[in-house]
Design brief:
2 copies of one chain form a homodimer. Chain A has 110 residues and is mostly helical. Helices cover 66% and strands 0% of the residues of chain A. The longest helix of chain A has 24 residues, at 26-49. Mean pLDDT of chain A is 81; it is low at 1-13 and 16-25. Chain A binds a DNA duplex (30 and 30 nucleotides) through helix 4 and helix 5.
DNA sequence: TGCGGTTATGTCAAATCAGACATAAGATCC
DNA sequence: GGATCTTATGTCTGATTTGACATAACCGCA
């Protein structure tokens, strides 16, 4: 992972372990965060496409507007569970969610 | 969702809301559980393919053998977060995880 | 049979995450 | 300017999730 990507992720509010750890296990750590970011993007796209407000989606989901906002802001306190439940509530198919996770489209230019 | 699928999911230890709820939001609820089951299957496959024991995977993941066992048993106390982190630790690619989520292969005959 | 290695199940304190609320900030209208 | 709609941010308390531990069960194999 290059510095640009690291900076981008840290800017999004993520904290990494020590620099040593950063070179160790963190291929996985980075991939995990990228998955989250991908789903974050997909969620906003899906919600807007469906013409839903955050409040409406929150109601469907049994959650609150603030939590939806945090989801779309990649807030670290939002779990993958919540993201995926939100996507389903927003009308995303399993295929769409799978594609978002698999996609590398949010990768910055190498 | 037919009774067979419901039964299958409930047998795996999942609890549903009331019957009324069951007919309401639960397309999503069911999809969510199916995603979990798909990842569960993918995890076991991936771990075995990589020749890892549950203990080894747990160490890589910074978790415990019992938790890995629960993941593979579709225990309701295991979150999607943990499943996906486990898959990454087991060497699964984002593409593989995405494919597992999108896949309908665990769907029973209609 | 007993013995390693592996996996399954039950429980619990500590950590994390959730929904809710307040409130601020933007946008768009009049 | 204000009014309204939407989204963003901060924080609190309760609920869920987690790693850890104990222990049981399973599976070859000698």
């Amino acid at each position: 992972m290059d510095d640009a990507k690291r900076q981008r992720l840290e800017a999004a509010g993520w904290r990494f372990g020590s620099v040593k750890d950063f070179l160790g296990l963190s291929e996985d750590e980075a991939a995990y965060i990228e998955v989250k970011l991908s789903l974050t993007t997909a969620l906003r796209e899906c919600r807007v496409r469906e013409g839903l407000t955050q409040v409406e989606l929150a109601r469907r989901l049994g959650s609150s507007q603030s939590r939806v906002a945090k989801m779309e802001a990649s807030d670290p306190t939002v779990s993958l569970d919540l993201l995926i439940r939100a996507l389903l509530a927003a009308g995303a198919s399993r295929a769409e969610i799978g594609a978002a996770i698999a996609s590398d489209e949010d990768r910055p230019a190498a």
